[in-house]
Amino acid sequence: QLSCLLKMVTLQGMPKDLDSYPKELLLFLSPSDYAGTGSCRQFFSSVGEANVDVLPREDPRRQQLLLEALECLEVPGTEINEENAEVLGRLVCDLPGEYIRSSGGRLLKDLSQCGSFLPEQEEAIRDVLSSGNTTFGPPAAWSAFTLSQLSGLIPVLGHSILQQIPK
Questions:
Q1: Residue 145 located in a structural domain
Q2: What is the residue range of 55's domain?
Q3: 125, 92 Cβ separation under 8 angstroms
Q4: pTM for this structure?
Q5: Domain annotation covers residue 85
């Protein structure tokens, strides 16, 4: 339906009021299509607010969006800073494990909103959390409040981390 809507909306060229349409529509565009109405950073900020699960994780368009976002944001290496994490929004759910590890705890809040993870992402999240080098501290110091903040990540914690959390 979104693909069809995009065809209808763009029949006469790219509309200037593209931001007034559902954010999910942008998942079917490329930043170059959007260029006339705003910057690539603005484009990916809007994409980051969309429900990226409209496209299956394996869909080449979804993978291409992440690659183009990293290029647009000029991310050096695999470390994502807080500002870029905010722009990426829901696209952080597709970051490979090495990005999660390199970025430390900065991505945890955004990752907790993801619906599912690949095994390499789960392992990276566990590595970051067990290191204790996050704003949450080591698992042995966590409280019920910490767990509520990490609620979306609880299924990934694993036995070794769960054992350390005080009752």
A1: no
A2: 1-94
A3: no
A4: 0.82
A5: yes
